[in-house]
Amino acid sequence: MSTIGRRSFMSLVLGSTVGFGLSSQLFAADGELDRGFVMAAQPFTTGVEIARQMEIWEMEVQKKPMRLIMADVPGQKGPQQVWYLAYRALPRPIIKSDIGTDVDPVNELDPAPGPPMFIPQMTLVTYSDRKTEIPVQIHIDRVLPSAIKQINTIERPATPEQAFLDSVSIVRPVPEPVPADAPEQPWIYGVCTWTGVDPRTDFFKVILQGFSNVYEIRGEGDDRRTWRKVLVQKFTSRGDEFDPTQKEFEFDGKPFWEYQPDKKSKADLAAEK
Predict the structure, then answer these.
(1) Which of 187, 201, 256, 210 is closest to 66 using CA atoms?
(2) Whose CA is closest to 177, among 42, 85, 47?
(3) Distance of alpha carbon 238 from the chain centroid
């Protein structure tokens, strides 16, 4: 568990992240929700993003409700509370806009060797004030084999290929994009798990990184940083902090895309000294 102060908030979580609303004409339609998946996030790519970067890929992500189980955790005595979020993802075709596409790409990072890889990372951030969203805890997705087995028993995947994988087992080359109306939808099924979350938490969000390769270079010199596109989903929770069977989670609005810096700014580092 990590507890942080106000100074570290913007740099550690979302920096001065900027969300954006876009015309639906720029996006592929989302796939049909079924088998308990109740919230979908479509890929949102703008003409500006396409113009500044070559070989963009972005996924549709569908989520089940957040849930809680009791499971064995390495290094702990007795079953512990494990929060988990089951999801499935699939790249969608990028619908290109003519806006801004007559310029050369401006992002300057060297291309990675080999095919692009799908490497998801999920961060759960709790907060007590919905207006400021100053973090109380920040938790990175943790691989828990015993919990994954229990989760697959609960979620009952229809086939072995639809079993929910942890964030290590799920790593693979990014598959080719599939239209939402294609007869076959080869979803990638995954689940993220967290331990040590304060059971008194009422408000939290999950930041999903690795579902888009879109990025932006900002700043100059020592302040030059890479900002990557992430998906954010907010939640509310209520119920008994001691009895997990009484804990209830709800989506707090629709998911949205934002940019998050790879590292803290020079000013943030100086402020922490």
Answers:
(1) 201
(2) 42
(3) 22
pLDDT of residue 180: 93
Which two tokens mark 267? Answer: 């000013």
Q: What is the pTM of this model?
A: 0.83
Domain limits of the chain? 6-271
Backbone angles phi, psi at 230, to 5 degrees: -130, 160
Contact 139, 1 (CB under 8 A): yes
7 CB neighbour count, 10 Å cutoff: 11
Pairing of strands 188-195, 80-91: antiparallel
Q: What angle do CA 136, 147, 35 make, to 5 degrees?
A: 95
CA distances from 165 to 67, 75, 231 (A): 16, 22, 19
CA 134, CA 120: separation in Å to the nearest integer? Answer: 24
**47/100 Cα distance (integer angstroms):** 6
Cβ within 8 Å of residue 149, ≥6 positions away: none
User: 8: left (phi > 0), else alpha (psi -120 to 50), else beta?
Assistant: alpha
Per DSSP bridges, beta strands 135-140 and 121-127 are: antiparallel
Q: What is the pLDDT of residue 204?
A: 97
Q: Which residues contact 57 (CB under 8 A, 6 or more apart)?
A: 91, 94, 116, 174, 177, 212, 213
> How high is the mean pLDDT in each 10-residue block of the chain (273 residues)?
42 45 38 82 91 92 95 89 97 73 54 84 96 96 94 92 96 96 96 95 97 93 91 90 75 96 74 64
Assign residue 145 a region: left if phi > 0, alpha if psi is -120 to 50, beta otherwise? alpha
